[in-house]
Amino acid sequence: MDTNTDDIEGCYYNRTVDFFYEKSGKNISDHWRSHDYVIVSLGMTVCFIVIFSNLLVMGAIFKNRRFHYPIYYLLGNLALADLFAGVSYLHLMFHTGPWTIKLSQHQWFVRQGLIDTSLIASVLNLMAVAVERHQTIFNIQLHSKMSTRCVFIIIMCIWLVAIVMGLVPTMGWHCLCDLENCSTMAPLFSRSYLVFWGVLNLLTFFIMVAVYTRIFVYVRHTSKQMSQHTTQMRHKETVFNLMKTVSMILGCFVLCWTPGLVILLLDGLGCEVCEVLRFEKYFLVLAESNSFFNPIIYSFRDTDMRRTFKEILCGKVPTS
């Protein structure tokens, strides 16, 4: 409940979420409107599809021995991050609109922390995939010789860092003691935190794009030098197809998340003419849709993955 006194002078730890929304100019309706029902219904439908499709990807990688390699373990972890994103957005659907007014500060930070953690996990996982592909391609290998233990240590580190980053605002980088520095889009977050968040992720995107560009140039160059021997041609085709798949996943991720990160950055910089609230919901839906696109990419790009999907859905045991 709101109180008229502060825990510490200049701080507002006892205030409700509605207090910060009013101060930032992001007003919340106290009743459900028709478009609120549409947004929540649509969002929940997408969330359930995301959860189901990424469970399918994880099941395929677990069951089919053809996918028991580091690159597929990392792609499986990406599916886990997408699954977590689906759960996070489902949680958001139950804590948005007029429901936002009823949230405590702790509940609001949990809501945002879940989404932030899923994004960081996806970004770090894509970076790990980029490093793995760079290592294997430049060593003229199809799959990394990295041990399973090493891969799982990397995966654990990815989630540890993602969870810590998701908790950063809760641990102190907020605006509860600095109302003038509160974000408009995320009224309990500090603008400086949004700048840090946006710059860090956009920089990571550019690095990954640069790595994949270098890999593609190298693959195209070496493929021209290969002989027409059947084994070499099949190896070249397999490597190139796998590279196309992971590059499409990266490209989709960048396209879906960049607009949202850009407006977060603009909000953090205090851009008053950018009308960030006007685009916020659209870019949030675009970011959410990324977790839905990845399983589609797997289905269209990987024949073995598509076949395993069918076997799982039909109740058959995937072939090894």
Automatic annotation (TrEMBL):
The keyword Transmembrane helix applies. Keywords: Cell membrane, Disulfide bond, Endosome, G-protein coupled receptor, Glycoprotein, Membrane, Receptor, Transducer, Transmembrane, Transmembrane helix. Belongs to the G-protein coupled receptor 1 family. GO terms for molecular function: lysophosphatidic acid receptor activity. It comes from Perca flavescens. This is G-protein coupled receptors family 1 profile domain-containing protein. It comes from the Eukaryota. Gene3D superfamilies: Rhodopsin 7-helix transmembrane proteins. It is a multi-pass membrane protein. The keyword Transmembrane helix applies. Signal peptide: none annotated. Residues 53-298 form the G-protein coupled receptors family 1 profile domain.
